[in-house]
C-alpha cells in the first residue's frame, strides 16, 4: 500500500508547502491537499470532508491556519502521525492525538529557533535604541535632537523578561548573556535545574513588574491564551517594551493598542497578531511606537533550506516505524507502536526505506 500524505493549504506558508508536495509526489507518494483557508481565519475542516481528505491518510500536515481536531483525528483510521512543517502545533489537539496513539512532530530545527531568537534580539535592540525615530531624522532631513531628548538606551543593565523557555526562549537567553542585562524568566513547566546560565526564574506578575523588555516565546495553550492582558500590562513600567515573536493569541490585542495609545508603555515590536494577515484597518498600523512585521521577521534562507528537509526526514522516520526527528509527544511511544501494529503494511519507495 503506497503511503498517502495530507498537506494543508495556507497562503502564508504555501511557499514551503507547495515545493514540499512536489517532492513527495516525485518520490511516488500520494499527496492530498486541503482547501484554501479564508485569509485572516483558521480553517476548520467540515466533517463531510473527513473521509475524502483523511480517510486514507498515513500522515497529515497542518499549519497555524488550519485546525486538527479530535473529530478529525478519529476520522483517520490509518493515521500514523501529524507532522507540522514549522515549530507551532497550537492548532493540533495534542492531547487527543496522544490519547489515540498518534505521534506529533514539528520543524523545530536549529535554523528555525535560532533564526527566531536572533530576530527577537534584533527587535529588542531596535526598540531600546529607538532606531525607527533615528532613521526618520535622516529620511525626513530633521535636525538631530539635543542630548536631553535622546531616547535610546543601552541594553546593558536592563532587565529582560523571557516568557517561555522553549528552544527560542533559551536561545534568546544565550544571545543576551554577553550584553550585561539581567535575565528573568517565567516558564511554569521548566525544571529549575535546567535553567540557562544567568537566568532567574520568577512568577508572571514579577516578570511583568520588573522587566524593561518582555519577550514572548510561549507555545499557546488554553491556560496562557491572552496572558498579556490589560491587568498584566498595567503592572509594567511606563518605560518598558513588549516583543512578541510567538503567537498573536498570547496578547490581548485591544488592551495592548490601548496601552500604546496612552503611552502606558514605551512601545512594542510584533511579528504575529490575533488575525493574520494583519487587517488593513488594524489600529496597530496607526501607532508610531510599535514595530510591525508580517510574521516573517525570523524567516531566513537557512530556515527555508532546513524546514523541507526536516519535514521529509520526520515523515520518512514515521513511515519506517521510527519516532520523528523532532517530536512533541515522545512519551506515548509505546501507545504509538501499539497503534502501528494494527495498521496495514506500507509499500515505501526504495529511497525512503531505513534499514532495520
UniProtKB/TrEMBL annotation:
<comment type="similarity">
    <text>Belongs to the D-isomer specific 2-hydroxyacid dehydrogenase family.</text>
</comment>
<dbReference type="Pfam" id="PF02826">
    <property type="entry name" value="2-Hacid_dh_C"/>
</dbReference>
<feature type="domain" description="D-isomer specific 2-hydroxyacid dehydrogenase catalytic">
    <location>
        <begin position="47"/>
        <end position="326"/>
    </location>
</feature>
<protein>
    <submittedName>
        <fullName>2-hydroxyacid dehydrogenase</fullName>
    </submittedName>
</protein>
<keyword id="KW-0028">Amino-acid biosynthesis</keyword>
<dbReference type="InterPro" id="IPR006140">
    <property type="entry name" value="D-isomer_DH_NAD-bd"/>
</dbReference>
<dbReference type="InterPro" id="IPR006139">
    <property type="entry name" value="D-isomer_2_OHA_DH_cat_dom"/>
</dbReference>
<dbReference type="InterPro" id="IPR036291">
    <property type="entry name" value="NAD(P)-bd_dom_sf"/>
</dbReference>
<dbReference type="InterPro" id="IPR029752">
    <property type="entry name" value="D-isomer_DH_CS1"/>
</dbReference>
<keyword id="KW-0560">Oxidoreductase</keyword>
<feature type="domain" description="D-isomer specific 2-hydroxyacid dehydrogenase NAD-binding">
    <location>
        <begin position="121"/>
        <end position="296"/>
    </location>
</feature>
<keyword id="KW-0520">NAD</keyword>
<dbReference type="Pfam" id="PF00389">
    <property type="entry name" value="2-Hacid_dh"/>
</dbReference>
<dbReference type="InterPro" id="IPR050857">
    <property type="entry name" value="D-2-hydroxyacid_DH"/>
</dbReference>
Amino acid at each position: 500500500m503506497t503511503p498517502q500524505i495530507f498537506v494543508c493549504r495556507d497562503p502564508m506558508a504555501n511557499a514551503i508547502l507547495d515545493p514540499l508536495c512536489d517532492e513527495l509526489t516525485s518520490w511516488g507518494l500520494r499527496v492530498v491537499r486541503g482547501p484554501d483557508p479564508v485569509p485572516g481565519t483558521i480553517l476548520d475542516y467540515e466533517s463531510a470532508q473527513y473521509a475524502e481528505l483523511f480517510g486514507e491518510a498515513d500522515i497529515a500536515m497542518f499549519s497555524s491556519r488550519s485546525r486538527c481536531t479530535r473529530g478529525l483525528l478519529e476520522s483517520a483510521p490509518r493515521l500514523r502521525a501529524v507532522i507540522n512543517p514549522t515549530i507551532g502545533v497550537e492548532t493540533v489537539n495534542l492531547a487527543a492525538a496522544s490519547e489515540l496513539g498518534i505521534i506529533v512532530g514539528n520543524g523545530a530545527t536549529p535554523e528555525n529557533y535560532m533564526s527566531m531568537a536572533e530576530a527577537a534580539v534584533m527587535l529588542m535592540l531596535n526598540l531600546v535604541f529607538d532606531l525607527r525615530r533615528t532613521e526618520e531624522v535622516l529620511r525626513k532631513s530633521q535636525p538631530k535632537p539635543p542630548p536631553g531628548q535622546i531616547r535610546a538606551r543601552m541594553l546593558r543593565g536592563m532587565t529582560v523578561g523571557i516568557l517561555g523557555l522553549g528552544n527560542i526562549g533559551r536561545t534568546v537567553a544565550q544571545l543576551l548573556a554577553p550584553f550585561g542585562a539581567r535575565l528573568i524568566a517565567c516558564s511554569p513547566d521548566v525544571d529549575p535545574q535546567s535553567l540557562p546560565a544567568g537566568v532567574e526564574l520568577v512568577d508572571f506578575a514579577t516578570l511583568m513588574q520588573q522587566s524593561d523588555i518582555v519577550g514572548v516565546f510561549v507555545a499557546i495553550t488554553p491556560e496562557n491564551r491572552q496572558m498579556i492582558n490589560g491587568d498584566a500590562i498595567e503592572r509594567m513600567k511606563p518605560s518598558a517594551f513588549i516583543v512578541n515573536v510567538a503567537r498573536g493569541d498570547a496578547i490581548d490585542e485591544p488592551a495592548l493598542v490601548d496601552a500604546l495609545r496612552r503611552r502606558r508603555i514605551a512601545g512594542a515590536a510584533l511579528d504575529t497578531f490575533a488575525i493574520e494577515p494583519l487587517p488593513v484597518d488594524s489600529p496597530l498600523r496607526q501607532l508610531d511606537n510599535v514595530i510591525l512585521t508580517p510574521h516573517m521577521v525570523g524567516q531566513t534562507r537557512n530556515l527555508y533550506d532546513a524546514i523541507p528537509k526536516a519535514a521529509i526526514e520526520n515523515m520518512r522516520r514515521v513511515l519506517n516505524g521510527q519516532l520523528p526527528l523532532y517530536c512533541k509527544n515522545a512519551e506515548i511511544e509505546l501507545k504509538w507502536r501499539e497503534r502501528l501494529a494494527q495498521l496495514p503494511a506500507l509499500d515505501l519507495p526504495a529511497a525512503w526505506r531505513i534499514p532495520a
